[in-house]
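re: that chain from earlier
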Amino acid sequence: MRDKLVLEFWDRSKNLNISDKKYQSYVNKTIDEKLKEDYYKKDLTTNSLISRDKKIKAVIVANQDGIVAGIDEISAFLKKVKIKIIKSRMDGNKIKNRGIILEIHGNARKILSYERTLLNILQRMSGIATLTYNIRKLTENNCFISGTRKTLFSLIDKKSVSVGGGLTHRLNLSDFILIKDNHLKLLNTGIEKASKSANKSKKTKYVEIEVKNEKEALEAAETIFSLKSNKLFAIMFDNMKPIQIKNSIKTINNIINENSINNKLLFEASGNINEKNISEYSKTGVDVISLGSLTHSVKAFDLSLEII
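^ sequence. v structure.
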C-alpha cells in the first residue's frame, strides 16, 4: 500500500511514453532543435565527398557496460526520416562493452549528418539511466530514488531516470504543491499557515513541505494531521543529516497513529546525497531519496557509430 502511494506521489513515468502526444512533441522539438544547431543540412564534408544516393549500414556500439536508454526516442525519429532499423536493444536493457545497441540501414548522407545529434541523445539518456541504476543498487529498505528538476533536457532526462529504475518526481511546477523556504520567506509566515493555504487548493491532491531541521519536521507533521484533509502529504528533509532524519521520523511515528501515517504522510530526503552516503540515508525511514546529480552533472555514456 505504501509503495503505491509513493509511486502515485513521485512518479510520472506513464506520461513519458513516445506514444504520448505531449512527450512525442517535446522529443521531436528537442531533436529538431539540436539538428538545426548542428546545421545538418549544410554538412560540408559529407555533401562534398559522399554521393547523394549512397546507401550504407551502420551500428551504434557501446564502449562500456551499462543500461540502454533513448531507443524509443531515436527509433521514432529514424522512422520519420526513413532510415530502417534492422535490429535494436530495448530501453532498460543491460549492455556490455562493444555490444551493438542499434543497427540501421539507409541514406549515407542522412546517417552521417544525423550522427552526432543521435549519439548525443543516446549518450545522455544512457548515461543517466546507468547512473540511476547503479545508485539504486546502493539503497536499502526498499527505498526509492528519484531525479529532480535540475535537468538539461527536461522530460528526456526524466524519462532516462525512469528507465534506470528511478522515479521522476515533478515533471514541472504544475504537478503538485511543494512548499519551500523561499515561499515561506515571501509569505513571512510559518509552515502551519502555508500548509493550511495549500490544503485549500482544488488543483492538486498532493502537497509536499520542505523542512530544514527536526523542529520544522515536527511542526509540519502536526499541522498535516490537524487538517483532516483528503490530500496526500509528504515531508522533504532538505540538507539534513541521516541521524536528524531518523530521529524526526521516529518522533513523528511516536506521536501519531502509525496507520494514519502510512495512509497520509510520506517522507523524502534531499540535498548533498551521493553514492558514498545514500545507503545511510536509505536506512532512515524515508520513502524516497531525490538526487540532482542524476541529471545535472552526469557523465555521458560512451557510444560510437560505425559503418559496417
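The chain has 13 helices and twelve strands.
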